From TrEMBL:
Keywords: Acetylation, Amino-acid biosynthesis, NAD, Oxidoreductase, Phosphoprotein, Serine biosynthesis. Its EC number is 1.1.1.95. It comes from Acanthaster planci (Crown-of-thorns starfish). Residues 267-380 form the D-3-phosphoglycerate dehydrogenase ASB domain. Residues 49-222 form the D-isomer specific 2-hydroxyacid dehydrogenase NAD-binding domain. Homotetramer. This is D-3-phosphoglycerate dehydrogenase. InterPro entries: ASB_dom_sf, D-isomer_2_OHA_DH_cat_dom, D-isomer_DH_CS, D-isomer_DH_CS1, D-isomer_DH_NAD-bd, NAD(P)-bd_dom_sf, PGDH_ASB_dom. Belongs to the D-isomer specific 2-hydroxyacid dehydrogenase family. GO terms for biological process: L-serine biosynthetic process.
Length: 468
């Protein structure tokens, strides 16, 4: 990723992304996508096939006959009818496994922290906690991603909680079942068999486990069907096109803020957030590891907007202070690495009368704070407030912007207008009402000034910036 400067999206034609450095991708602003549904049926069918093969010793009987033996008594199997299948992970694959194995007469029980009992009951599966599931299940199959909470889910501590002779199946991700603990359980008889399609290392190096006579194994074939490969290839390609066209980010695993920001009604507010962040940097100067940012949203339409607007403000805030490109994917990661503290909150009523939905940003750098408020008018970002000074009609935030503050009672506009050359004609202008603290003015210029130094004799503060 360090050398792939133009890389924008990494697609995983499948579900698991533990073979992608998602954290590194996020730091580089690269979207990581998977196809969570494309291989569902193939993985479920493979799981069911592995359960049958393990129960009836099909691979062992096959090889025995190939070698010229007729070992009918040696490979005595077990029926599935009347047995209990424990399913850990009741998502799409777990559900498909449940409905298929029920056709064999199995009772299905399951656990998934994200699936309520009522939803599990819809496919005739009794939801229960793991502590209840272990001693009830004759077979245990896992359908979960490999994350810290699931690594070694079946291991030294959990095998003793299971039925004696329990059989386990893993067609999900290697590492969910602790291979060393599994081998011990097989040798002691606590585990009566294992069907494995995935391993902690691939190709696997645990030859003792692979060669064990109670183990049925395949080389990660869960999604290896012509139908699944075609399906996930088409899905990831369609997801790429939708992402590039700004339609959706279905399957994105590291871009929650960006996913919400693609909605047509939210795009103008994302642009507003970036503009407010850029203006805040212009006012506060270079951000430091002591920078604090507070983003406050107002109005019902922005009640759920904190995540993507916080990211958008951060993009604007850091756009000139980081070497890597800033976007909504890496904004939070980069801010955290720098040490910037970002907080978001929401209030129902807007503090300014011009709009029912607006965003306020308070940025504190080295103990000095500035507050900005803005909204969207005609799908364009508008500045409404700087440090409690209100722009009554609002100022469009676009193009080459010049912001300056004058002392109370001082009108600097004529002097500044005379400084501007013909190539820097004023496209728009707005000012706040006079107050004891002076007033703020904002101009949009046709082109940027070479320097604001020539203005400083007329104002107490001046800064310019370019906005998209």
């Amino acid at each position: 990723m360090d050398v792939a400067k133009n890389l924008k999206i990494i697609g995983r034609a499948g579900t698991g992304v533990d073979n992608i450095d998602v954290s590194a991708a996020s730091r580089h602003g690269i979207i990581v996508m998977n196809t969570p549904a494309g291989n569902t049926l193939s993985a479920a069918e493979h799981t069911c096939a592995m359960i049958c093969a393990m129960s009836r010793h099909l691979p062992q009987g096959h090889m025995s006959l190939k070698q010229g033996r007729w070992d009918r008594k040696l490979y005595m199997g077990n029926e599935l009818n009347g047995k209990t299948l424990g399913i850990i992970g009741l998502g799409k694959i777990g559900k498909e496994v449940a409905t298929r194995m029920q056709s064999f007469g199995m009772t299905t029980i399951g656990y998934d922290p994200l699936v309520p009992a009522s939803e599990a009951a819809e496919f005739n599966t009794e939801w229960m906690e793991l502590e209840q599931l272990w001693p009830k299940a004759d077979y245990v199959t896992v359908h979960v991603p490999l994350i810290p909470q699931t690594r070694g889910l079946l291991g030294e501590k959990t095998f003793p909680l299971c039925k004696s002779g329990v059989r386990v199946i893993n067609v999900a991700r290697g590492g969910v079942i602790d291979e060393a603990a599994l081998l011990k359980a097989l040798e002691s008889g606590q585990c009566g068999g294992a069907a494995l399609d995935v391993f902690e290392q691939e190709p696997p190096t645990n030859t003792a486990l692979i060669q064990h006579n109670k183990v049925v194994c395949t080389p990660h074939l869960g999604a290896s069907t012509e139908e699944a490969q075609l399906r996930v290839a088409m899905e990831i390609a369609e997801q790429f096109v939708d992402a590039v066209n700004g339609k959706s980010l279905f399957g994105a695993v590291n871009a929650n803020a960006l996913s919400n920001a693609l909605k047509p009604e939210t795009k103008p507010f994302v642009a507003l957030g970036k503009c407010l962040g850029a203006v805040a940097t212009a006012l506060c100067g270079q951000v430091t590891n002591q920078t604090q940012v507070q983003v406050i949203t107002y109005g019902d339409s922005l009640k759920q907007a904190g995540s993507y607007l916080g990211a958008a403000v951060t993009v604007g805030l850091l756009r000139s202070s980081t070497s890597n490109g800033m976007n909504l994917v890496n904004a939070g990661v980069v801010a955290k690495e720098i040490g910037i503290q970002i907080a978001t909150s929401h209030q129902d009523c807007a503090p300014v009368p011009q709009t029912s939905a607006c965003v306020s940003v308070v940025v504190t750098v080295n103990g000095v704070s500035h507050k900005l408020s803005g909204s969207v008018m005609s799908d364009s970002p508008v500045l409404l407030e700087i440090d409690d000074a209100i722009f009554v009609s609002g100022v469009m935030l676009q193009g080459n912007m010049l912001l300056y503050r004058t002392q109370a009672g001082v009108t600097a506009f004529p002097a500044i207008a005379s400084v501007l050359s013909s190539s820097n004609q004023i496209l728009s202008y707005g000012t706040t009402p006079p107050s004891n603290n002076g007033s703020w003015s904002a101009m949009q210029l046709a082109s940027p000034l070479p320097s604001v130094d020539s203005l400083k004799q007329h104002v107490t503060f001046a800064v310019q910036l370019s906005l998209a």
